[in-house]
């Protein structure tokens, strides 16, 4: 995010219509709706999937527009609107519905804000009348009332303790939208204006703004950050789906799970696979030493104490669960037997797994090697593009037209597509249970793999003036064949999804 | 250590030491090193509980961002209690986790722990083995906890039957703490305890 600290207050200034127009139209036409832009063309075998790419500034605008839109209807402070919207995961309709249909007091209560219709509580703390001094419950120092402050709930602390408190929440705990009052048991949320006013360090301010944007994007089903390292663009879709989208940084990823576009394997299997690969060894799956996934939101959680009662650190989740069985914590008091039963079950599984582990490790290594191999080759993608570009220029100096040499670039495009598809076919195959259709799938896979390797050899071979015509024909024939085989393979898998052919196992 | 953390700990130490709680409730806290990060606490077992007469030592680690983060507290003295791990001394108490607030102090923590000894919450167990005994056989739980207090915390209420059983296991070459854990978790059934130790 850029400098403007005031973005949060920007919503006070009028000028709505122009901002509204800005986002929607500009990028529809510039970046094009799914399928129009560069690399996504690779995947044009897929149906149209409309999306747009936004910068963090545009997302901020979009967020402010959302707030304004609601504020045009409901007449409450902007800071309260923001908290309410966040409470409803930025679903305007849901908020409006509750605001007008339900009991407003309970709505404010639920969203952890003080009703804006109530007159603010006067702080009733023991102010020594003679000296005008108050004691801060955090630093335990007495200071002039002017140095004490608080939010609508009436709890007051000194400004420097507030600053420290907010800084810890933001920097250590990564909290943004959901920081509550510092008083014990008080759940009232600190609004963004107050936070910005109390923060001094610009680094912390920046992080806070980033967290706010982040939670806005993460709450919103129609938005996803581009997962490419250090890329800060956001993709906005019209309906969420497991479809490929392309960022302005040219990264192509699955909108649903954020991984590289992974057809033919589905998001859930891919996630299982990646987790498996990240684990050091097969057996460490069972020992899962110090981190586990939150059973509700899948965020990775580190165990930081001896207590088995875990609370998910994710802002939007906060699930309570048991470290041992990953079950919800709630029934553990009354029926902790279930947790024990799981222990036995888990122990038995661990034993069985060890027996099986040798055989399954070999199987795993087989698929993993092939998967890694294609991944490795893909990493040399730019290199290949660069060398092909060189060749193309060389050919143009030898009396070939620009049009005539385009086949080379096309060949590399297809080679990369094939490798990417192949890579994910090994994940799919790893979990696939054998049946008649899986045999056909494996034939398709073998076919595509052989053809792809041949194409790859052609492209690496020296292309000279003499054999040019000949090689051009060969390359074109081969990439057409590869492309066709790739489509065939994908179609077959998709047909299998439709007709329920695929059985999975967890080896 | 941040200034505020040190400043707070200094004030808090004074608070505990100056208050009459040392006499009244028998809580105590002192520094274990000079940089205010490592403290030792002591609480007396409340009367009319199996912990009566025992002194329980606590390890208190002060995080850098104290008081905005809770202190990390665990029992150094072994204790038989549903909300405290019999093996590690780890504590399941809300105010040491999510319910911590910066306005709480070491004094509140120690008093809360003392209250926890007086009123266990078996519905939110840290040690499931202990919690099970607490729910299924409270009299045996009471006797066991009392014996642990005698054994580890200097309590006065011994139990000749238990001592005998521990001794028989010691005669088999088992350390007495190991024997105590095995017997306690097997409801003092000798055969089961032996099986658990030697299997
Ligand atoms: Zn203060
Ligand atoms: Zn408050
Ligand atoms: Zn990107
Ligand atoms: Zn996906
Ligand atoms: Zn979670
Ligand atoms: Zn459990």
Automatic annotation (TrEMBL), chain A:
Q: Does the keyword Metal-binding apply?
A: yes
Domain (RING-type) spans 132-343, 136-184
Which reaction equation describes what this protein catalyses? [E2 ubiquitin-conjugating enzyme]-S-ubiquitinyl-L-cysteine + [acceptor protein]-L-lysine = [E2 ubiquitin-conjugating enzyme]-L-cysteine + [acceptor protein]-N(6)-ubiquitinyl-L-lysine
Report the GO molecular function annotations.
ubiquitin protein ligase activity; zinc ion binding
Family as reported in the entry's similarity comment:
Belongs to the RBR family. Ariadne subfamily.
Annotated segments matching region Disordered: 1-32
Task: Kindly give the CDD domains that the UniProt entry links to this protein.
Answer: BRcat_RBR_HHARI-like, Rcat_RBR_HHARI-like, RING-HC_RBR_HHARI
Biological process annotations from GO: protein ubiquitination
Write down the superkingdom of origin: Eukaryota
Identification of the protein by name:
RBR-type E3 ubiquitin transferase
Pfam families per UniProt:
Ariadne (PF19422), IBR (PF01485), IBR_1 (PF22191), UBA_ARI1 (PF21235), zf-C3HC4_2 (PF13923)
The organism of origin for this protein: Armadillidium nasatum
| Listed Low complexity bias regions | 10-22
Species lineage:
Eukaryota, Metazoa, Ecdysozoa, Arthropoda, Crustacea
Q: Which UniProt keywords apply?
A: Metal-binding, Repeat, Transferase, Ubl conjugation pathway, Zinc, Zinc-finger
The protein's Enzyme Commission number: 2.3.2.31
- Kindly give the InterPro entries that the UniProt entry links to this protein: Ariadne (IPR045840), ARIH1-like_UBL (IPR048962), E3_UB_ligase_RBR (IPR031127), IBR_dom (IPR002867), TRIAD_supradom (IPR044066), Znf_RING (IPR001841), Znf_RING/FYVE/PHD (IPR013083)
TrEMBL record, chain B:
| Xref: Pfam families | UQ_con
Q: Which InterPro entries match?
A: UBA, UBA-like_sf, UBC, UBQ-conjugating_AS, UBQ-conjugating_enzyme/RWD
UniProt-listed PROSITE patterns: UBC_1 (PS00183), UBC_2 (PS50127)
The alphabetical list of record keywords is: ATP-binding, Nucleotide-binding, Transferase, Ubl conjugation pathway
Q: Which residues form the UBC core domain?
A: 4-154
Enumerate the GO terms in the molecular function aspect: ATP binding; transferase activity
* Catalytic residue positions: 92 (glycyl thioester intermediate)
Q: Which PANTHER family match?
A: UBIQUITIN-CONJUGATING ENZYME E2 (PTHR24068)
Q: Which protein family is named in the record?
A: Belongs to the ubiquitin-conjugating enzyme family.
Q: What is this protein called?
A: Ubiquitin-conjugating enzyme
Organism of origin: Armadillidium nasatum
Lineage, opening ranks: Eukaryota, Metazoa, Ecdysozoa, Arthropoda, Crustacea
């Amino acid at each position: 995010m850029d400098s403007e600290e005031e973005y949060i207050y920007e919503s006070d200034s009028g000028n709505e219509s122009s901002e509204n127009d800005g986002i929607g139209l500009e990028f529809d036409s510039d970046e094009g709706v799914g399928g129009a832009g560069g690399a996504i063309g690779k995947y044009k075998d897929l149906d149209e999937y409309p999306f747009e790419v936004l910068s963090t500034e545009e997302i901020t605008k979009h967020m402010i527009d959302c707030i304004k839109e609601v504020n045009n209807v409901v007449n409450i402070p902007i800071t309260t609107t923001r908290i309410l919207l966040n409470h409803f995961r930025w679903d305007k309709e849901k908020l409006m519905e509750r605001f007008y249909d339900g009991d407003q007091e309970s709505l404010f209560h639920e969203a952890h804000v003080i009703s804006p219709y109530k007159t603010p509580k006067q702080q009733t703390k023991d102010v020594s009348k003679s000296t005008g001094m108050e004691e801060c419950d955090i630093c335990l120092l007495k200071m002039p009332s002017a140095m004490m402050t608080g939010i609508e709930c009436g709890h007051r602390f000194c400004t420097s303790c507030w600053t420290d408190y907010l800084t810890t929440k933001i920097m250590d705990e990564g909290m943004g939208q959901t920081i509550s009052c510092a008083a014990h048991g008080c759940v009232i949320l600190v609004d963004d204006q107050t936070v910005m006013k109390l923060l001094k360090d610009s680094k912390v301010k920046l992080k806070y703004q980033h967290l706010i944007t982040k939670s806005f994007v993460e709450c919103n089903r129609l938005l996803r950050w581009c997962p490419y390292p250090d890329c800060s663009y956001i993709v906005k879709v019209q309906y969420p789906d497991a479809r490929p989208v392309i960022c302005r940084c040219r990264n192509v990823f699955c909108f649903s799970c954020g991984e590289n576009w992974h057809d033919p394997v589905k998001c859930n299997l891919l996630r299982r696979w990646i987790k498996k690969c990240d684990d050091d060894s097969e057996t460490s799956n069972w020992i899962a030493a110090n981190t586990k996934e939150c059973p509700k939101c899948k965020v990775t959680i580190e165990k930081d104490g001896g207590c088995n009662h875990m609370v998910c650190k994710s802002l939007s989740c906060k699930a309570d669960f048991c470290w041992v069985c990953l079950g919800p914590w709630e029934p553990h008091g009354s029926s902790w037997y279930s947790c024990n039963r799981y222990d036995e079950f888990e122990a038995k599984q661990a034993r069985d797994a060890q027996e099986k582990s040798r055989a399954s490790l070999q199987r795993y290594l087989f698929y993993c090697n092939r998967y890694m191999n294609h991944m490795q080759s893909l990493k040399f993608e730019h290199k290949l593009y660069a060398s092909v570009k060189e060749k193309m220029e060389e050919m143009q100096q030898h009396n070939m037209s620009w049009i005539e040499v385009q086949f080379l670039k096309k060949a590399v495009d297809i080679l990369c597509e094939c490798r990417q598809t192949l890579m994910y076919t090994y994940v799919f195959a790893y979990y696939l249970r054998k049946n008649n259709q899986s045999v056909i799938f494996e034939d398709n896979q073998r076919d595509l793999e052989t053809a792809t390797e041949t194409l790859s050899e052609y492209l690496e071979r020296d292309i000279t003036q003499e054999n040019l015509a000949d090689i051009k024909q060969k390359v074109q024939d081969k990439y057409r064949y590869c492309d066709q085989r790739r489509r065939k393979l994908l179609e077959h898998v998709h047909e299998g999804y439709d007709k329920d052919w695929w059985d999975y196992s967890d080896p | 250590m941040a200034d505020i953390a040190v400043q707070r700990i200094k004030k808090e130490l004074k608070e505990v030491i100056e208050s009459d709680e040392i006499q009244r409730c028998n809580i105590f806290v002192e520094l274990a090193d000079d940089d205010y990060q490592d403290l030792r606490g002591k609480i007396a077992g409340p009367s009319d509980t199996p912990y009566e007469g025992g002194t329980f030592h606590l390890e208190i680690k002060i995080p850098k961002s104290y008081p905005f983060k809770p202190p990390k507290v665990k029992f150094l003295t072994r204790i038989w209690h549903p909300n405290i791990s019999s093996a590690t001394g780890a504590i399941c108490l809300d105010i040491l986790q999510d319910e911590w607030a910066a306005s709480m102090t070491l004094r509140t923590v120690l008093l809360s722990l003392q209250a926890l000894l007086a009123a266990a919450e078996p519905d939110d167990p840290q040690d499931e083995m202990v919690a099970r005994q607490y729910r299924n056989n409270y009299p045996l739980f009471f006797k066991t906890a009392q014996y642990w207090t005698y054994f580890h915390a200097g309590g006065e209420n011994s139990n000749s039957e238990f001592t005998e059983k521990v001794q028989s296991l010691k005669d088999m070459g088992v350390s007495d703490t190991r024997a105590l854990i095995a017997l306690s978790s097997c409801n003092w059934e000798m055969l089961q305890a032996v099986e658990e130790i030697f299997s």
